[in-house]
Amino acid sequence: MKSLTRRRFLQSSAVLTGGLAFPAFAVARPAPNPLRLGGPIFLKSDDPDELAREHRRLQYSAAYVPKVGLNDVVRIKAIRKAFAAQNVLIAEVGAWVNMLDADAGKRRKNLDYVTERLALADAIGALSCVTIAGSYNPNQWDGPDARNLSKDYFDATVENCRKVIDAVKPKKAKFALEMMGWSLPDGPESYLKFIKAIDRPAFGAHIDIANIINTPQRFYNNAALINETFRLLGRWIVGVHAKDVYGKDVHFAETMPGHGSLDYRAYLQNVTSLPQEVPFLLEHLRTAEEYDEARQYVISQATKAQISLA
Question: Among 107, 216, 225, 294, which is disulfide-ready with 256 (CB 3.0 to 4.6 Å)?
């Protein structure tokens, strides 16, 4: 039998289908996850039930950890119960200290603090404990320094992350580093190197696209940067920060969502297309009114992209 040419096959197919053109196959895109939006709240209360309800009133289904100590077992249990009842996911526990402080005593104290915060994240059912790798800058704990891009910095950070994870051995919570523009990890490729080098299942990826907009190419092509970041790191991602960025003089500055140039459609589509639910957290604003504006902008963009809220 002579083999059919592509043209003859298509012609014969058209006859069989009455001249109608059908694709050989169709792949249905899975529906996106609902968006787990979250942010700080301004309710003056320590009651876990009231705090959880306030998150829901603001259409938040993700939260920063409420104020609680690792040894306050009763309050930890109450927070877990109250937030679960409102379907509000405790997204992250922050541990914002310099793990590479030049002073040995301060560095040891900071590592102890980070270890305690990861233990709290695991105890309270949070997805992650997040900090930055640190800085060799002698005057600013998160400041720029040429040594922050060195092999010594990378190796010391790998060692620090392993120490923290191995000390806690978390059952659920992941330990993660926030991406930064002036130190590592400064993008998806360097983050992937950390994941491979640290080599611990409890190490996850935390995304903040605004933080890594540090070149004109990344600024003007930020949708491509967003897509590549989620493509490379997707299965490890445990949290995302929601900010924006704009060009200012000879540098880039952060601002609230909607006041900058980030492609929020691409951002939200990538977050909600992950197989796992990942919280999307507003941060670094000053007032309840500013958070309301940012929250409404994100919700409007989600609505336009046909993404529902969790």
Answer: 294
